[in-house]
Amino acid sequence: MWTSGRMSNAKSWLGLGMSLYFWGLMDLTTTVLSGTPTPPGKLEALLSDKPQTHSRTKRSWVWNQFFVLEEYTGTDPLYVGKLHSDMDRGDGSIKYILSGEGAGIVFTIDDTTGDIHAIQRLDREERAQYTLRAQALDRRTGRPMEPESEFIIKIQDINDNEPKFLDGPYVATVPEMSPVGTSVIQVTATDADDPTYGNSARVVYSILQGQPYFSVDSKTEHYQMSVLESAPVSSTVGRVFAKDLDEGINAEMKYTIVDGDGADAFDINTDPNFQVGIITVKKPLSFESKKSYTLKVEGANPHLEMRFLNLGPFQDTTTVHISVEDVDEPPIFEPGFYFVEVPEDVAIGTTIQIISAKDPDVTNNSIRYSIDRSSDPGRFFYVDITTGALMTARPLDREEFSWHNITVLAMEMNNPSQVGSVSVTIKVLDVNDNAPEFPRFYEAFVCENAKAGQLIQTVSAVDLDDPHSGQHFYYSLAPEAANNPNFTIRDNQDNTARILTRRSGFRQQEQSVFYLPILIADSGQPVLSSTGTLTIQVCGCDDDGHVLSCSPEAYMLPVSLSRGALIAILACIFVLLVLVLLILSMRRHRKQPYIIDDEENIHENIVRYDDEGGGEEDTEAFDIAAMWNPREAQGGGAPKTRQDMLPEIESLSRYVPQTCAVSSTVHSYVLAKLYEADMDLWAPPFDSLQTYMFEGDGSVAGSLSSLQSATSDSEQSFDFLTDWGPRFRKLAELYGASEGPAPLW
């Protein structure tokens, strides 16, 4: 609406958005064609093609923001406004196009006239405004006649929401004999209507019951806002607005938080365009720590005229209640990062760290732990699903991996989508588990004319370990070469050693190569050592020590035997050797009958006794512990055997190698067995492997198998069954010889 003259300095708190009244004109050549009042004469000037007296460039588009009432219940589409271009001559050559939010669904446009209609019921509480774009095209060529421009359709509020007490019912107490005017409780009602438009959202308080003892101030209207506890810092919580009837600089407003328990959690800034106070989050919020805050906000005029100070104060305050809403948050680890140091010789199944996480929500759901396998592809570690105990699942080797960076996950049991994570950095500490050794193959030479004490080689060593005090190696001749008469070694005390001759007079004809074993030891705990071999060739040298030849004199063949003849002889010998080996191999693979002597008959795990067992009181017969756990029977010393009878064959499980000791905890034992099974792929089952390669040879009946009896049924005779006695009479009748033709079965 258009007004003139000076307005009073009265102020009132309405909420967000006086833009409805004070949007103004965007330009001297733009306005609204939507029923909004327009200054007299301005519209005609804009729509006219007559020259104007002003010097500013005339814009082609004639439009601004549009307004439409919510909750329209009519049957016809609701008219919103009209778009018009000064290039439109009314002959239908211009086509209007509408795009943006709600275009074609909520709003439609007549492409010839530019009329905009709403085809759906609008609700300001659901959406307060729509941003759309308009364009004018040449209907024949489709060429844009005007640049695409953006405009806004704002939804005007109607009083369609009643005030509500969100925190009710209220319960309050007051001491008896309290003086009149004592504050008892403060109640807050909110209205979903637009507080910046009319009085739809203005709340007036009154008491229906309780007079004349209590009263309520009808004018204390408070702001009620809510914010998610996950809202980031600097995000907007809500807006407050102090109405000032002045104009221009006299209507400017400055908002500050002057009191309340939320002054350190929230901040307020002034929007210079709309003169509203924007409340933002100042620090992270937590529903579990504090569920609500109260702010006392002051709005004041920053520009005051001294002559009107007696009309003040030029400020007002309001109360803002902010409720923090709970959000289902993922588990949080405490601390937020783990650093663990563990020696590389730690046993499998050892707990190296307890990982702890909790659900920050008030529900405090149960947590389940796991390891992100992409961070531990080698599966070196395992975490207990309930306790968060981080354990080793495989042997660690610092020389292979000195650092491990794994990610432990914590998942809410009732909501698997809520997953937290924490980084765990594991440093593998070095232990002295590698012996020093030569870095390469060492080969030296000694001249035949070398003298005693002459240096022939300097050697060094490497060690994969990394002790804190540094590496220090000690060199000496191996025990088997301690009294070597030819060479000696001198430790240089700098991790190198010199090899010297102890005599002179080396001869290739006597010995062309010497192999000198050298013992290398480190300074770790325990001390580890290895033996390296230095190969020394005896060479012929000149007087200056330069090598002439290091190979012994060539073997001279007899003159009477040529080289070709020697090759032919060797070839014949090789062919004969191959034939002999082939014959022996064929004989060895010839099929042998499965006949084994009584002494070679094997019955695994069968123990013969000449007396009966003594029942439960017979504790000397066998060791019952071996049936519970064969490992315990072996680890506890010699197996307990019967003193008066020695078994013929002992159990196979007693000889199965056990590579890992049983740990004191179930997790350690299971992890150790799992690793043992993974590493030993060829280990057979301890109690189920049975191999038979022969039939029962000890029975007087011989073999009853048909494997070797498939030659001819006519040659098979079962007459011997009649000689076996009454127990085999039935078999004798079935398989025995009978006179006459064979029966037909």
TrEMBL record:
GO molecular function: beta-catenin binding; cadherin binding; calcium ion binding
Organism of origin: Panthera pardus (Leopard)
Function: Cadherins are calcium-dependent cell adhesion proteins. They preferentially interact with themselves in a homophilic manner in connecting cells; cadherins may thus contribute to the sorting of heterogeneous cell types.
PROSITE patterns from the UniProt entry: CADHERIN_1, CADHERIN_2
Keywords (A to Z) from UniProt: Calcium, Cell adhesion, Cell membrane, Cleavage on pair of basic residues, Glycoprotein, Membrane, Metal-binding, Repeat, Signal, Transmembrane, Transmembrane helix
Predominant localisation class: membrane
Alphabetical list of SMART domains matching this protein: CA
Pfam families from the UniProt entry: CADH_Y-type_LIR (PF01049), Cadherin (PF00028)
Residue stretches making up the Cadherin domain: 85-165, 166-220, 219-333, 334-438, 438-554
Top-level taxon of origin: Eukaryota
A single GO cellular-component term on record: adherens junction
Compartments where found: Cell membrane
Bilayer topology: Single-pass type I membrane protein
SUPFAM superfamilies in alphabetical order: Cadherin-like
Membrane spanning stretches: 565-584
InterPro entries for the chain: Cadherin (IPR039808), Cadherin-like_dom (IPR002126), Cadherin-like_sf (IPR015919), Cadherin_CS (IPR020894), Cadherin_Y-type_LIR (IPR000233), Catenin-bd_sf (IPR027397)
Name used for this protein in its record: Cadherin-20
